[in-house]
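Render this sequence as a predicted structure.
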Amino acid sequence: MMEELKDAFITFIRTQKNSLYRLAYSYTKNEQDALDVVQDSIQKGWLALERLTNRDQLKSWFYTILVRTAIDLLRKQKRIELIGDESLLQLSEQDTYCNLDLQQALHHLPLQLREVIVLRYFEDLKIEDVAHILAIPLSTAKSRLYKALKLLKIELETEENPSNE
């Protein structure tokens, strides 16, 4: 059973490496730091693998490790701002977020709203998993998601019709 879990973990890391890097980069805003976060998270995950009780929760379990590792790194570096104003736009060369208007609209969202959108839609996680990863109540995750979507809609409509003055 443990060997199957180890194989599943290795396969997960190999198939999700780009998503893991993007998520780490969205916190660190630095290529080397993002790579360090991913590497440290893999090590932590491997060492704690026996504590994973449900194989179906591998993705959300590992994303939790990754997000907490990124935040720990930022605390060590005494950075206060988790995602800067330009970080999502800087990701354009490395990520698959194709819509520039959407990137710019995301850029205007506060971190708490942005991270819910990124985890839910770009990383394709269930809202329950997003709440677990961010260590917030499910109701808070839902309300942040609703508020973020509402703000994104307003922002995107404003960008489509800039001559409403």
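Summary. The CA atoms of residues 27 and 83 lie 6 Å apart. Residues 79-98 have pLDDT under 50 and may be disordered.
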